Amino acid sequence: MREAHPILVGGAWIEDPHPTDTVKPINPSTGHEIGDEYPVSGSETLHRIAQHAAQVAEVLNATAPDRIALFLDTHAGFIDERRSDIASIAHTETGLPRSPRLVETEMNRTIDQLRQAAACVRSRDWMRPRVDTQNNLRSMFEPLGAGVLVIGPNNFPLAYNGAAGGDFAAAIAARNPVIAKSHPLHPGTSRMLAQCAHDAVVATDLPKGTVQFFYHCSPDDGLALIRNPNVSAVGFTGSRGAGLAMKKAADETGTPIYLELSSINPVFVLEHAVRDRGEAIADQIAESMLQASGQQCTSPGLIALRSSEYADQFIDQLSSRLKQASPQVMLSHDGRDGLDKAVQHNMNCGAECLIGGRKIDDDAARYEHTLLCTNASHFLEHHQELQEEMFGVAALIILCDDNDQFALIAEKINGNLTGTIHHSDCDAPVLKALTRPLRLRVGRLIHNAVPTGVHVSPATVHGGPFPATGHPGFTAVGLPTSIHRFCALRCYDRVSDDQLPPELRDRNPTDEMLRYIDGKWTRDDADE
Amino acid sequence: MREAHPILVGGAWIEDPHPTDTVKPINPSTGHEIGDEYPVSGSETLHRIAQHAAQVAEVLNATAPDRIALFLDTHAGFIDERRSDIASIAHTETGLPRSPRLVETEMNRTIDQLRQAAACVRSRDWMRPRVDTQNNLRSMFEPLGAGVLVIGPNNFPLAYNGAAGGDFAAAIAARNPVIAKSHPLHPGTSRMLAQCAHDAVVATDLPKGTVQFFYHCSPDDGLALIRNPNVSAVGFTGSRGAGLAMKKAADETGTPIYLELSSINPVFVLEHAVRDRGEAIADQIAESMLQASGQQCTSPGLIALRSSEYADQFIDQLSSRLKQASPQVMLSHDGRDGLDKAVQHNMNCGAECLIGGRKIDDDAARYEHTLLCTNASHFLEHHQELQEEMFGVAALIILCDDNDQFALIAEKINGNLTGTIHHSDCDAPVLKALTRPLRLRVGRLIHNAVPTGVHVSPATVHGGPFPATGHPGFTAVGLPTSIHRFCALRCYDRVSDDQLPPELRDRNPTDEMLRYIDGKWTRDDADE
After folding, report:
1. Per-residue pLDDT tens for B355-412?
2. Which band of pLDDT confidence, cut at 50, 70 and 90, is reported for residue B2?
3. CB-neighbour burial class of residue A429 (10 A; exposed 0-12, middle 13-18, buried 19+)
4. Is A37 a member of any domain?
């Protein structure tokens, strides 16, 4: 038996003194154990990690922005140097294609996110300082004061990783120490990314324990960690069930928690768009559905269109595209079984199976590409049951009898990350009627394009109304806005200049930072 | 028997068709009923109100900023015209002094807040538009899409009123329809303010039902209203018990709720400050405690100082100042009884009574000015029990044996709205040790001044960590930041210019609005 891998606590890799169990990851392409063992940490260890985080926070909060930025850039550089090894282990653990998905696409996004965060730290724009010289009142966003727990999902082993992803970058950018939890499906990948972070902490002389890391814990121990007063916020991306349990725990202790939960990403293909370019749209949607075997939070899972011969052609085209593509290995056998359960659930609720709908019978975790279909009246009657996320290459087509049903469907849609409308000029009246109900229910509204492929841009929103996330006013992607999730708004009332944080002193500490001084945004000093 | 007053539903004053009870307010100065009756609305009525709000939201969300601003200014103007009548009824209902408190101080703040909100609406600064022209991604803050429920407290009948106060102004500024709930202690005051709002809605031709208003409801019906999908956010200022029940309901449905709960506003008077100017500080604190009979969310309720002869003089001075002042009428007899309960609780937990500690035996709701005292060791041992808010002229003094105990006390303080430090130059080392733990636990840190008297300034923060509020990243006072509580962050992905909100189109719709376009804040158009 191999020894379980060490965890990163208080700045050192140590053997977990009291693991409650071990995780033995399985290669989803073969169904066999990979051969490594990772500890499941218990409450004592997690308590100690949280305590460290709170101690580190004091030093880290007082660290100069340039050093935080240097850490983020250095971390990005280490990941870049080790990209081949990281992609290899990520491929073994997740079944995601090594190239271009892991070694280029997701890796570049991860590195770019960290570098964008570094730039935001240097600009200090996220602090949004406000000064009222008459009353000597000054306020800005500051770090929270203890650890931020970041829990990454199964489907983006790099770009959402607790030790390297978007939540990590945002939390550190605001100078919070991070407690990173691996997803149990890719502990080896996470270990390598945590090692990069640790090496960067050492190289840039940040306080020991700025980044701590563990592999897994029981649900109860995880909820206790969320309630721990030394955890000041939580970022979680994952399943709705786990997320809502965490939200409940966090809500009880008033701990800010940012969730990215399931989303079915409705797509509306309006009448004239289907007629004008139905096949091209079907091709686009098929390509979008096939990305990462459909295991993306923005994967299209519901497609509404009006019945017609063109709609039939659209469905034929989409079906044939999906059938042409070979089912790829999914993230795990459990994930494949979950997909099957969701597909069967929707069929039991009256959706007809057009293609697919079954597991593929071999050792790899694979599932037939699936299209279900129902009509609008049936959907409207059973809209809650029929919004079960099918996390894989699977979508539910809704056929409308008339154009009015598009808006009626949108009114019944739960909160989602994205909503897409394909339209042509002649669809204008329907577009108008549909836009309002859909707009209110999605974080990102897309026209004539696909929802997958989230740009890491300051102008994006990767968020949306509950239950897609926990709060409609935040985004998980897009710097510097995503940083505001991990901040406290704090005010200094008649505090003398030498006792103020640099960003609130009369003198602007950079030439670039905009501050709201006495009624206007300015780069000037406050005493001018 | 008089008929119960009508409520404001869907743009018309109507008799509540199904009241579950009535409220008969009492004059706290006499203990007698004022003579008016107000309906307690039931679930059917509240459901109807919420439905109206969601319908109105669509029209209101599309209303031009100038008209929203005009409404806010007009509302402010109507309140200004009727200030004398409003102050009179507010005085009868709350016992707060008519002048200067109601007719000048609080009235001016209320009017000023509405006008500041109008200016923010015109500037559109709160929308914070972000544009990425390369990817045609555009995002900004938008109204939530249904009603915002605003529940005002007992202690600021004007400036926090559901139909005229800070939450109201912020919610409307973001173009959300408001469902205003009166506090049952001042329904007549609220009725007049709701009338001003209604008149302003009519005068500026905003959609009917932009402001709806009811007086009271049972706790269960209130929680059901919070869970109603047509209520998209809640603003509540009041007691911790009621607030936490509402938070639980809102958390279950993922409804953003902004709470301002109890706060004991710790004050630390450091060794040399006591020595150098102890009596002057005692005078300041006494004056602050006496404001509004101590019924303010920022009233100092805990005073820590180091034992010494100067500390004794400080306490003597504070005691004599409080004794010199006559106890004023409190907001209600229930409130006075609540204060008594909290004082007795703290005494039962070992605090010694220096002065006061008893109800005054007459018809008016009055209470003796109260000082309790304990030592730091005792407080540190019983810190949870001894942080019970005493909502009145009452504070707990904590005497420290040494300077190290200041920071230890601060570490045990719950989340508060404010924290104050009085210090002299020689206190520098203690100030340094105390600042970090106190800073993390309060929204506004004050030096050498008093916490009462919140400036309505863009640079203030009236917020703080749980349980003072529900989230440390927001403020209830200070425009435009307070508006962000009632917004959703929404993104438009490859949407053509003519389908975008004006603020996200290439052309900047104002000359003033800063937008973040392709990496910089600019007032330019996006296509330049």
Report:
1. 999 999 989 999 999 999 999 999 999 999 999 999 999 999 999 999 999 999 999 9
2. low
3. exposed
4. no
Distance CA A168, CA A179 (A): 9
Q: At what angle do helices A309-324 and A271-290 cross, to 10 degrees?
A: 10
Domain identity same for B330 and B297: yes
Contacts of B459 in chain A (CB under 8 A): 130-132, 135, 137-139, 491, 516
**Distance between A486 CA and the closest CA of chain B, angstroms:** 8
Query: Are the beta carbons of B493 and A445 separated by less than 8 Å?
Result: yes
The yes-or-no verdict on residue B219 having pLDDT over 90 is yes
CA distance B157 to B437: 34
Collect all residues of chain B within an 8 Å Cβ-Cβ radius of residue A491: 443-445, 459-461, 475
Tell me which residue in B131, B256, B443 faces A491 most closely, judged by beta carbons.
B443
Residues with pLDDT less than 70, chain A: 1-2, 528
Is the domain of B279 the same as that of B316? yes
Write down which residue in A447, A466, A499 finishes a domain: A447
Strands (DSSP E) found in A102-146? 130-132, 137-143
Tell me if residue B297 is catalytic.
Answer: yes
The pTM score is 0.97
**Residue B344 and residue B240 share a domain:** no
What angle do the packed helices A404-412 and A428-441 form, to 10 degrees? 0
* Chain-chain contact of A132 with B460 (C-beta, under 8 angstroms): yes
Q: Do B458 and A132 touch (CB under 8 A)?
A: yes
A87 with A476: CB under 8 angstroms? Answer: no
**Domain extent at residue B44:** 37-261+474-482
Q: What is the CATH number of the domain that holds A119?
A: 3.40.605.10
Nearest to B139 among A459, A472, A499 (CB): A459
Same domain, residue pair A313 and A197: no
Asked if the structure places residue A467 within a domain, the reply is no
What's the helix, strand, coil split of chain A in %, to 5?
A: 45, 20, 35
CB contact under 8 A, A491 and B467: no
Confidence of residue B512 (pLDDT cuts 50, 70, 90): confident
What would the pLDDT profile of A232-245 be if each residue is shown by its tens digit? 999 999 999 999 99
Quick count: other Cβ atoms within 10 Å of Cβ A37? Answer: 18
* pLDDT value for B4: 87
> Is residue B466 assigned to a domain?
no
Cα–Cα distance measured from residue A495 to residue B454, given in angstroms and rounded to the nearest whole number: 15
**Nearest-CA distance from A14 to chain B in Å?**
30
If asked whether residues B219 and B353 sit together in one domain, one would say no
Q: Are residues A220 and A280 in the same domain?
A: no
Q: Label residue B473 by pLDDT band (50, 70, 90).
A: very high
- A55 falls within a domain: yes
Q: Considering B120, B217, B297, B487, which one is annotated as catalytic?
A: B297
Residue B373 C-alpha, separation from nearest chain A C-alpha, in angstroms? 27
Instruction: Look up residue B91 and give its amino acid.
Output: H
Q: Which among A37, A93, A260, A388 is annotated as catalytic? A: A260
Q: Provide, as residue numbers in chain A, all residues whose Cβ is less than 8 Å from the Cβ of B447.
A: 492-496, 499
- Indicate yes or no: CB of A494 within 8 angstroms of CB of B446: yes
Is residue A64 domain-shared with residue A130, that is, in the same domain?
yes
Write the pLDDT tens digit of every residue in B309-336: 999 999 999 999 999 999 999 999 999 9
Cβ–Cβ under 8 Å, residues B435 and B419: no
Q: Is B37 considered catalytic here?
A: no
Q: What is the CATH number of the domain that holds B380?
A: 3.40.309.10
Residue contact A496–B447, C-beta within 8 A = yes
Give yes or no: residues B253 and B330 share one domain: no
Would you state the pLDDT for residue B528? 61
Show the 3-state SS of B372-414: EEEEHHHHHHCCCHHHCCCCCCEEEEEEECCCHHHHHHHHHCC
Number of structural domains chain A divides into: 2
DSSP conformation class of B479: T
